[in-house]
Write a structure and sequence with these properties.
With 286 residues, this protein is mostly helical. The protein folds into 2 domains: 64 residues; 218 residues, MetI-like (MetI-like fold, Orthogonal Bundle), CATH 1.10.3720. The protein contains 10 helices and no strands. Helix 2 crosses helix 10 and helix 3 packs antiparallel against helix 8. The longest helix has 54 residues. The protein is flat.
């Protein structure tokens, strides 16, 4: 009798828990939908106003075609494979330059911010001066050094991507409280444990600030560099469509580049949340 009562009570509790979980899941789902719709209102109104202005001759359709024509031209380019081809080239160049910058700048930032602070104080003004150099003014220099091609584009991306990574990594390591390091050392932590359990987790927010800025700058700069001198890539494709007066396609490429940059930002934001969870678990395990 007692067992039967216990089983029935447990079943009721599990049922209530399941109902609560389902209710919370539904509420969260509708909350996300509501948030998405609120965020989309301005975008929808913008495209509706654009369509109406073009169709009712408030804007010259030869200069500003309606979004329906823009999307149709983009769909034709996508179907032919030309848009995807140029997108792959641009993303490959941007990714390679960004990864090369991350591979060099993040370790250098850790070294300068932790073990070589005196050297960092002496070197920092010079690095800041290099950062302030206008990358657009350096395009001819990179073309002379590397020619017009993939190497030149990757070198430009490396140049602009390294500074946010380097300076934000240094700032992230500076934000670590000395008491945390002293406490870890007093508990017998060696350099390896100190780095992976204290310094690296504490520097993660600063590093990812640099990573997000660097990724956005890399994508922006690859489009600009392809417009300056290239025969492939989204930047060149945009310039080619404008020069051949394919106005709907030109606007379509602008929209496509905008959507790509938003997707890149969202991807790195999700990655940042994942690493922040890892940071919390690292501190808790200590």
């Amino acid at each position: 009798m007692i067992k039967q009562y216990s089983y029935s009570k447990l079943a009721r509790e599990n049922g209530e828990t399941l109902r609560t979980f389902n209710t919370d899941a539904v509420k969260n789902f509708f909350k996300k939908i509501k948030s998405f719709l609120y965020g989309s209102i301005a975008i929808i109104l913008f495209f509706l106003s654009w369509e109406a202005a073009s169709n009712y001759d408030l804007l010259p359709s030869s200069v500003v075609p309606p979004p329906t024509r823009v999307i149709a031209a983009l769909a034709v380019s996508f179907k032919s494979g030309e848009l995807v081809y140029h997108m792959k080239i641009s993303l490959f160049r941007a990714m390679l330059g960004f990864l090369l910058a991350a591979f060099i700048s993040i370790p250098m930032g850790f070294l300068l911010g932790t073990f070589f602070k005196t050297f960092e104080r002496a070197l920092l003004p010079f690095l800041r001066m290099l950062e302030k150099l206008n990358p657009f003014a350096l395009f001819p220099v990179f073309m002379i050094l590397f020619g017009i091609g993939n190497v030149e584009k990757i070198a430009i991306i490396f140049w602009v991507a390294q500074w946010p990574l380097l300076f934000n990594t240094i700032a992230g390591t500076r934000s670590i409280e000395t008491n945390m390091i002293k406490a870890a050392r007093s508990m017998g932590a060696n350099k390896k444990v100190l780095f992976f359990k204290v310094i690296l987790p504490a520097a993660v927010p600063g590093i990812f600030t640099g990573v997000k800025i660097s990724a956005q700058v890399s994508f922006f700069m690859i489009i600009a560099s392809e417009m300056a001198g290239s025969s492939q890539g989204l930047g060149w494709y945009y310039l080619s469509s404008s020069q051949s007066y394919q106005v709907p396609l030109m606007y379509g490429i602008i929209l496509f580049i905008t959507v790509l940059s938003v997707i890149i930002n969202l991807l790195f934001t999700r990655l940042e949340k994942h690493f922040l969870v890892w940071k919390e678990s690292s501190f808790q395990s200590n």
